Task: inverse folding
């Protein structure tokens, strides 16, 4: 699914109005029906609802929703905050419709004094936030900031329309977090906003749901965007396995990893690689890991290193392998760093690098320029920071990753909630699967093994990164259903691949 910046979404609204065609007021009504339908499924009728509406079209949505809820038997009170005493045309039209209906207690607030006197206890009830939409580009202040503080300090459940009021659609580095609504739910219209994928905004966005409002499909098709949301419908498809295929059909992967005390990482990556469908897997590990691997992963072949505790030498012919991956549990011994250098210089196959392979790159930045084009790296936030320097927000991290990916012609999978796969052409693919139960040691090793398997089977680096991340999260979601997020471990994820 393509996702768009806030100016692009505004343009898609205009395209829909012009080409459906539909009036802006009727489109607002369609939006309000979609919101009301969601509320009817999730809100009990015996709960009082207060709607806070602004003077623009987001406020118009809120006024229309209030009118529709009243028709459905809800007790609704509306506060239209309008300090400039000027409404957008469609907001004004919905104000008139609401007043004419006469079923909703309505107050128009033009001063902070009125705000203080009118807004009393906001709990226990539901607040619908319709103050500002996604077009906001400066921090809120004055009466709107006061209203937001009142709402955030209440014990009400807050449901925001399209985006929490005060939040910018993309970069919030210049915003004032004290003046942003903290929603429990956000009902986002047609597309998630890019800001939703950043951890610093979780406190504002809450749990978000996409509501289809019927924006024109041709307008969506014609509008280019570097941002995508990978769901089941848009993830790369798995290839069919032919009846007469054999183990050689599905590639031979080489995995380099493990060290004394960290062989578990190599085991997890190896098992994940095999479960994801590779035909053959060879693991190069220190001598101490051979018995571990032969017992824990009997399907894999082992290449023991001459050193007992760590990987020190890579001399075997690399040509038999269709893809190579490594780094999990590898350690950062000086000799191990030389192994990575040899691999980067000699390998002609697709590569995926994780964990200590990335830490070696960070401490030997001269090796970064040796990364072959289309290599996939899978850093967690700290590993990425070691590679590129500190950043103040996830948005800045994404921008850094785009620059790093483009400069070195590699793919970067920034792990975390909504893992982002960044491509050399600056595309960013946010992932839809996964859950907090995966925030445990071993999850990243499993992802590395899965991506390696896909590379070895002939999927392109882009397909391998996006599909590997998606399937990894999907297996994690199945593991959470079976074991619970707290109890699940990496092995449970592997068993659900």
Result:
């Amino acid at each position: 699914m393509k996702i768009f910046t806030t100016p692009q979404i505004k343009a898609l609204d205009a395209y829909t109005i012009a080409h459906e065609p539909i009036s802006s007021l009727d489109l607002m009504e369609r939006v309000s029906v979609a919101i009301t339908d969601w509320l009817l499924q999730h809100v009990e009728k015996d709960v009082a609802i207060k709607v806070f509406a602004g003077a623009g079209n987001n406020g118009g949505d809120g006024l229309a929703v209030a009118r529709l809820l009243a028709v459905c038997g809800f007790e609704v009170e509306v506060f239209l905050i309008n300090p400039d005493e000027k409404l957008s045309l469609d907001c004004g039209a919905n104000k008139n419709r609401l007043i004419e209906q006469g079923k909703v207690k309505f107050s128009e607030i033009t001063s902070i004094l009125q705000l203080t006197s009118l807004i009393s206890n906001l709990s226990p009830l539901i607040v619908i936030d319709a103050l500002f939409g996604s077009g906001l580009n400066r921090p809120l202040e004055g009466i709107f900031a006061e209203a937001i503080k009142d709402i955030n300090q209440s014990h009400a459940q807050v449901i925001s329309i399209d985006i929490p009021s005060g939040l910018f659609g993309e970069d919030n580095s210049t915003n004032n977090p004290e003046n942003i609504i903290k929603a429990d739910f956000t009902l986002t219209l047609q597309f998630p906003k890019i800001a939703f994928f950043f951890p610093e905004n979780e406190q504002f966005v809450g749990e978000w749901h996409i509501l289809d409002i019927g924006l024109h499909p041709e307008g969506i098709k014609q509008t280019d965007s570097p941002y995508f949301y990978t769901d089941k419908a848009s993830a790369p498809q798995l290839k069919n396995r032919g009846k007469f295929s054999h183990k050689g059909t599905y590639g031979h992967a080489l995995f380099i990893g493990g060290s004394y005390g960290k062989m578990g990482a190599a085991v997890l990556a190896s098992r994940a690689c095999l479960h994801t469908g590779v035909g053959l897997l060879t693991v190069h590990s220190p001598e101490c890991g051979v018995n571990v691997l032969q017992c824990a992963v009997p399907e894999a072949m082992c290449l023991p290193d001459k050193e007992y505790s760590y990987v020190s030498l890579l001399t075997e012919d690399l040509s038999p392998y269709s893809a190579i991956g490594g780094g999990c549990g590898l350690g950062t011994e000086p000799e191990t760093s030389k192994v990575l250098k040899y691999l980067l210089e000699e390998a002609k196959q697709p590569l995926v690098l994780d964990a200590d392979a990335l830490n070696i790159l960070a401490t030997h930045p001269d090796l970064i320029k040796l990364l072959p084009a289309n290599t996939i790296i899978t850093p967690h936030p700290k590993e990425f920071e070691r590679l590129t320097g500190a950043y103040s927000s996830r948005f800045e991290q994404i921008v850094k990753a785009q620059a790093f990916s483009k400069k070195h012609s590699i793919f970067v999978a920034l792990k975390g909630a909504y893992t982002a796969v960044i491509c050399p052409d600056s595309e960013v693919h946010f992932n839809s699967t996964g859950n907090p139960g995966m925030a445990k040691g071993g999850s990243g090793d499993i992802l590395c093994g899965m991506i390696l398997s896909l590379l070895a089977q002939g999927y392109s680096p882009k397909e391998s990164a996006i599909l590997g991340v998606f399937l990894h999260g999907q297996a994690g979601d199945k593991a959470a259903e079976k074991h619970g997020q707290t109890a699940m471990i990496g092995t449970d994820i592997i068993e659900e691949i």
